[in-house]
Structures are given as structure tokens and as C-alpha cells.
Amino acid sequence: MTLTPEQKQTVSSWVAAGDNLSTVQKKLSEQFQLSLTYMDVRFLVDDLGLELKNAAPKLATDIGKAPSADPAGGPAAATEEPAGEDLADDAEDFAAPPGGGAVKITVDNVTLLPNALASGTVIFSDGVTGKWIVDNMGRPGMTEISQPGYRPSPADAQAFMQELSRSLQKKGL
Questions:
Q1: CA–CA distance, 133 with 157 (Å, rounded to integer)
Q2: How does pLDDT run along the chain (173 residues), one tens digit per residue?
Q3: How much is the pTM?
Q4: Which residue among 50, 105, 138, 154 sits deepest, i.e. has the most Cβ atoms within 10 Å of its Cβ?
Q5: CB atoms inside a 10 Å sphere around CB 126
Q6: CA 111, 132, 128, 164 torsion: positive or negative?
């Protein structure tokens, strides 16, 4: 299968506009009557040297940032940065939590979530609970929080990171 230079340019513009592989596949079929498998489209994008936007899935909630609400009253939008990245970078800026140990975490014995190296639960000092994961890139993040829109205090965020590190080291992870 060979595309004309014009078709290649069109595919490049679709990818640059943020279309994912399945959308490109559908447009190739509709506009150029080319029936390609999903994998063929993946190879085509790679052969053209294009980079997909939003290729990696993001965690539902980033513990370092509060989700932004949709002004139309819709569901909260996910943050733009990868989960946990800014929390890890800013950990030195947080003051030590008063009394220490106010945040309690548990580590699951078996992690069944796809792309997760470890998972468990957390109880923050104010009683809000959540489920956390560490993804396959080593980034911590939250998958569920008992209070929608919750953002832990900087002291709780730091205590969470310290407890998480300590607990994972005990487990040999």
C-alpha cells in the first residue's frame, strides 16, 4: 500500500490535529477508500515519523493537582501533566507534617491493575481515603478518592510520598 504525497500530508495534518489511530483509520477509509488494519495505521504513522498526541493514558486524579471543573457544569477534566510528577519534584518544598505519621497507607499484596507496579490505599490526616497506584514509569497517582475534587494538604502530600517510599522499600519494590 502506497500513499500519494498529498495523502501523506493529509494524514500528517490529522495526527498533528490530535487524531488517534482509530480516527485516522476511519478517515483513511472514508476519504481515501483505504481499508487498513489498526496495526497498519500504526506502522503508517511510524513510517511517516509522526508522533501521536495523548498516546499514554493518564491517571484519573493527580494527587499533586486538583482537577479543574468544566465551566459548563460537566465532569472535572484531567490535569495535563503526568500523574505525580510535580509532587515528586516539589517534595522538598513542603514543610514536614506536624506530628508525623498522620497519613497511613497500605500496599496491596497483589496488584491487578494494568500498567501498575504497585497499588494500595491511603487515609489522609483529615480522614479522606483513596486508592493509589505507582504506574510502570514509577509515577504515583490516585485512582479513586472518597471526596471528589479533593487535594491533600502539602504536609499530607509529603507524608504520603514518604510513607509510600518506606512501605515499598519494605516490600522490596
A1: 14
A2: 688 889 889 999 998 888 888 888 899 889 988 888 888 888 888 888 888 876 544 444 445 444 444 444 444 444 333 343 333 333 333 333 444 457 888 888 877 777 788 889 998 888 889 888 888 888 888 888 888 888 888 888 888 888 888 888 887 77
A3: 0.42
A4: 105
A5: 12
A6: positive
